[in-house]
Specification:
The chain starts with 12 loop residues before the first strand and ends in a 12-residue tail after the last strand. The strands form two sheets. It has a four-stranded antiparallel beta sheet, with helices on one face. Strands 2-3 form a two-stranded antiparallel sheet. Helices cover 47% and strands 11% of the residues. It is of the alpha+beta class. Helix 9 runs antiparallel to helix 10.
């Protein structure tokens, strides 16, 4: 799942992509958090994890990871650890404005450093882990530096080494369509459809067709519905691609009523 739905204090309005939201709703990979509740938390915590205290945050982890890469520059795991440490650091207030739901100037500079670390990692030809794949999907994606070409290249590199995930193929199709790489987009879309439960395939197929037609579009005034974590959500998307939750209700029960013989 691209976002952790378990953290508390989720914002009610977040940035979403129209077709992506529709598809992710349908297959259970929701691209945003929900819920209000007390205490800390927030979207950034769900993406990057919690800060490690007011004093140093993830600075010590980054320093330790950097030292490891200096000592073992040919060790892929060392570069992967540095990518992960910097990625978590990117969730700190200095780098990410949670109120605006976007990276600061320093945050974007940090994402650029992560990409440099990633390139060193890739040069060693490792078998990528799911963690680093998820991290880089966010760095290259719309919530990060918004680089579709790099997103496509990254996913083509990591997918062969990882368990099949519908959302990876969805994002590969989206990035490929944005890059006008229609052959890759078609293959990725077909794979996403094939990995979808049979009863939902027709609907996902229609969403993928819409994605191909308008991979970067965010049509306004659309109301989307979907079920996740036992609840049904109705979300209205405006022309900026922002989604506002209109209604939340329990999902209908799938169990049949019991009958008692007399």
């Amino acid at each position: 799942m691209l976002f952790d739905l378990r953290a508390r204090g989720r914002r009610r309005t977040v940035q979403v992509v129209y077709v992506g939201l529709a598809l992710l709703f349908l297959i259970g990979f929701i691209g945003f958090g929900v819920g209000v509740g007390g205490g800390g938390g927030g979207l950034v915590e769900g993406i990057f994890g919690k800060e490690e205290g007011a004093g140093g945050g993830y600075g010590k982890q980054v320093a330790a990871a950097e030292a490891r890469t200096h000592k073992h520059p040919g060790e892929a795991a060392a570069w992967a650890a540095l990518v992960e440490a910097r990625f978590h650091q990117a969730g700190e207030k200095e780098f990410y404005d949670e109120e605006k739901q976007q990276f600061t100037g320093k945050g974007k500079e940090l994402l650029t450093k992560i990409i440099a670390d990633w390139n060193r990692y890739v040069a060693l030809k490792p078998a990528p882990t799911l963690t680093i794949a998820d991290d880089m999907l966010r760095v290259f994606g719309e919530e990060g530096l918004n680089q579709p070409a790099q997103t496509e290249a990254m996913l083509q590199f990591v997918i062969p080494s990882l368990p099949e995930k519908v959302n990876f193929y969805y994002y590969l199709a989206k990035a490929a369509y944005q890059n006008k790489d229609l052959s890759t987009g078609e293959l990725a879309a077909q794979k996403a459809i094939s990995l979808t439960p049979a009863k939902e395939r027709a609907r996902v197929k229609s969403y993928m067709a819409a994605l191909k037609k308008n991979p970067s579009g965010n049509p306004s005034n659309e109301v989307l519905t979907g079920t996740t974590n036992g609840k049904v959500y109705s979300v209205k998307v405006n022309k900026k691609g922002e989604g506002t939750i209109l209604k939340t209700s329990p999902a209908p029960s799938t169990t049949k009523p019991s009958t008692t013989k007399k």
